[in-house]
Design brief:
Blueprint (H helix, E strand, L loop, with lengths): L1 E4 L5 H5 L7 E4 L9 H5 L3 E4 L16 H17 L5 E6 L17 E4 L17 E6 L13 H16 L4 E3 L22 H17 L4 E6 L5 H14 L4 E4 L7 H10 L7 E3 L2 H10 L46 E2 L6 H35 L2
Parallel strand pairs: 1-3, 2-3, 2-4, 4-5, 6-7, 6-8, 8-9
Antiparallel strand pairs: 10-11
Length: 377
């Protein structure tokens, strides 16, 4: 059986896939994937990034209708792209509940028992820690970088932060799907949809708050998630005044991060945006096997005006969302050819340091606000 990972492809490679090729979306891990060939009666199968949690029995459940909406949106993306055989790989309910039903009604499901799982969630004894929720995405990153670029990077940042301060933070499994409003421009790009995305993450916060957790950091590796995560934080803060829930714009966006970018970057303004010098460097450090640097095309011909331009920290007074095709032929914004593993190693180190500082601030905000409320009666 030839089993390939969809997220390790570039978008031109996705565009070239036969549309009758089976694509499988796993719910969790630990499956005997060798059985897929027998179930689907084929020797070539594409495996999509697994959804690590959300369904009933996953260990971090949300309401079934919210999980169904999220999963349907992902399957619909593939159907819109012309794929005709899309399946959800579901843990066999007979193993736990005795009922043979799918968590997502109306979508073809493959039922297999799970032999085990590497996915873990915060234990009750970690309630005094900041829960880091790393959220990546599966989307095009030019000719040279994989669809999993954002997920690879934010998983490393989130896990690195927890590894640096294990007494202060705990990290959820990285979530590989987010929001891309330019989904139809380049194959291989998913879009959960803004409202569905917000509903899902607020439901995750609901579940964790019900278990007694009080501090959260929604940590995004994909720019398209950012405005929607701001809404999640606003909803959560209003709904649960006793918690402290925060997010930030990507990584390397504070004063320490900006200084680190300027210290090593070789590209001018416009060289760091998407599939760029920065992201390419980080993936070259983390997963060099997935980068095809010889294919990189530098694109910095963004239609720039004083209040609207593209670089890592988007500047100017204007916020807009024009078609990507206006500014890029290959899907890249920036100078990916300038990426190096050495720069990636340095920038990842500083990104983790930046997030460690944020974790400390979240703890301080939570503590001082509790003290003020207590003092005020």
């Amino acid at each position: 059986m030839t089993l390939f990972r969809f997220e390790e492809l570039t978008w031109p490679e996705v565009a070239a896939l036969p549309r009758d090729l089976p694509l499988v979306l796993p719910l969790g891990d630990g499956f005997d994937l060798a059985q897929l060939s027998t179930l689907l009666k084929t020797d070539e199968i594409g495996l999509l990034p697994a959804i690590p949690f959300g369904w009933s029995g996953s260990g971090l459940d949300v309401r079934p209708e919210i999980f169904s909406d999220l999963t349907r949106s992902l399957v619909s993306n593939l159907l819109e792209d012309g794929f005709t055989r899309v399946y959800v790989l579901t843990p066999d309910p007979l193993a736990s509940s005795g009922q043979r039903t799918s968590p997502v009604s109306g979508i073809p499901s493959l039922l297999l028992p799970r032999k085990g799982s590497s996915i873990s969630f915060p234990a009750d004894g970690e309630r005094e820690k900041v829960v880091i929720l790393p959220i990546g995405h599966t989307e095009q990153h030019g000719y040279h970088s994989p669809l999993s670029t954002d997920t690879i990077i934010i998983e490393a940042v989130g896990q690195g932060t927890t590894g640096a301060v294990p007494e202060q933070a705990v990290c959820l499994p990285v979530f590989p799907y987010g929001v891309s409003t330019h989904r139809r421009s380049f194959p291989g790009t998913f879009n959960v949809g803004g409202r569905t995305f917000e509903d899902f993450w607020l439901a995750v916060i609901d579940t964790l708050v019900a278990r007694g957790f009080t501090r959260f950091y929604l940590m995004s590796g994909h720019g398209g998630n950012s405005s929607f995560l701001v809404n999640v934080v606003k909803y959560a803060g209003e709904k649960y005044p006793e918690i402290f829930c925060a997010t930030s714009f990507l990584y390397l966006s504070g004063s320490k991060g900006v200084a680190a970018l300027e210290a090593k970057r070789e590209s001018p303004l416009g060289g760091m945006g998407h599939a760029c010098e920065l992201e390419t460097s980080l993936v070259l450090h983390l997963r060099p096997d997935l980068i095809h640097l010889e294919r990189a095309v530098d694109e910095m011909d963004f239609i720039t005006t004083p209040s609207y331009y593209m670089d890592w920290i988007e500047g100017g007074a204007l916020t807009a969302n024009p078609p990507w095709e206006d500014d890029t032929r290959t899907g890249a914004y920036g100078a990916g050819s300038l990426g190096t593993a050495e720069k990636g190693e340095y920038w990842l180190k500083v990104a983790i340091e930046e997030k460690v500082d944020h974790v400390a601030e979240i703890h301080e905000q939570y503590r001082r606000r509790r003290e003020r409320r207590k003092a005020g009666g």
